[in-house]
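Below is how a single chain appears once it has passed through the pipeline. First comes the sequence as given, then the structure the pipeline wrote out for it. We keep one example in the README because the format questions we get most often are answered faster by looking than by reading.
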Amino acid sequence: MAENEVKSTFMLIVRFFSLAKSLLSKEKSYVKQVVQDAVRTSIPGLVLGVAGLVFVVLAGLFSLVTLVLLLNTWFLPWVSALIVTAVLLLGGLALGLTGLSMAKKGIEKARTDLDRTREDMRWLKKN
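Resulting structure:
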């Protein structure tokens, strides 16, 4: 304590900001290291997941062809293809509209959070 009594207030403030800068620098390097480790450990799983997704998409395409061929036993080939196309189109539209609705809610929430953060920053700058 006697050591700090001799120092001026200005020097203590300079020392505080120096220590804060050092802490932020170390925190930044820590976060960077954690993210790099997370990326390194997740890349193999991500590659396998993408490969699995490719196989699922291919299986889906083959199932659509199989469905058209199955419908050919009752309908003309062009009618079978039209039925499958209409079902896929309606399903895609339903999923797309649902996704847009969810994205709109997410954008509104993000915009609200950003506005709150800006207001907090303005308040901090004033005080």
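Residues 60 and 66 are 10 Å apart (CA to CA).

See the next section for the split statistics.
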